[in-house]
Amino acid sequence: YCDWYIEIAKRRLYDETDAPGRRAAQHVLWKVLDGALKLLHPFMPFITEGIWQHLPHEGDSIMTQAWPRADEAWLDPRAEAEMAMIMETVRAIRNVRAEFEVAPSRKVDAIFHADGETATALDRNADILAHLAGLAGVKLEPAAAPKPEKAAAAVAPGVEVYLPLAGMIDIGKEIERLQRDIQSMHAEAERVRAKLGNESFVSKAPAQVVQKQRDRLADLEDQLAKVRARVAQLES
């Protein structure tokens, strides 16, 4: 909520040309915070009461309010999966920026390689990506497009991102960084593979939990292949 939605909502809150969008963002911000305060109140009574009193409300105290109830009509697995992909992509870009000590205030261009629904989601959320990752421009290309030279690479599920850091990138340092990523992803893939190789886990865990692990392993193997290919390209 704080790290992601509030940052995303700022664009709509400050956009004077989109009054309906601003009101929608304000309502979501209030609704989520109001519900969170009610859930936290039994454990943090004083601070939640103090914050709640500053929000639009009915009644004298948060302690007399009805307990929030889940509404399955609000569930949207597709939107959740899309946002998870956007968040992973932003994290990957931020990690590259930090690795190469690119100041948060410095805008950089980004080239995204993706296909299908992932490409559609990236295009739909280009403004959010630019805002959260500090990008000057967002360019979307097919997954099979030629890889840019002298560009730092970031990998997230279903997408490769290239940041053309001309004059800022050290090829040797980039290879070392990618090798560390390979080691980390390989270790995680081995952990997931070991879990899936455990007959007790596969037979006793809920089917959706097992499938989630299988999907995670497939994502890791795909990312490993892409990063290894990038290392080979840089070394050639």
Give me the count of strands: 4
Domain count, please report it: 3
Count, helices: 9
Average pLDDT score? 90
> How much strand?
5-15%
The N- to C-terminal Cα distance equals 44 Å
- Highest-level CATH class of the largest domain: Alpha Beta
> Main β-sheet, in a few words?
4 strands, mixed
Form type: globular
Order of helices and strands: HHHHEHHEEEHHH
Secondary structural class: alpha+beta
Provide the gyration radius in Å.
22 Å
Main sheet strand line-up = 2-1-4-3
Low-confidence spans: none
Helix-residue proportion: 55-70%
CATH topology of the largest domain: hypothetical protein PF0899 fold
Q: Which architecture of the largest domain would the CATH scheme give at its second level?
A: 2-Layer Sandwich
Helices and strands in order:
Layout: H1 5-13, H2 19-40, H3 45-52, H4 77-99, E1 108-113, H5 116-124, H6 126-133, E2 135-141, E3 152-156, E4 159-163, H7 171-196, H8 199-204, H9 207-235
Parallel strand pairs: 1-2
Antiparallel strand pairs: 1-4, 3-4
Helix pairs in contact: 1-2, 2-3, 7-9
Summarize the structure.
By secondary structure, the chain is α+β, with helices and mostly antiparallel strands.
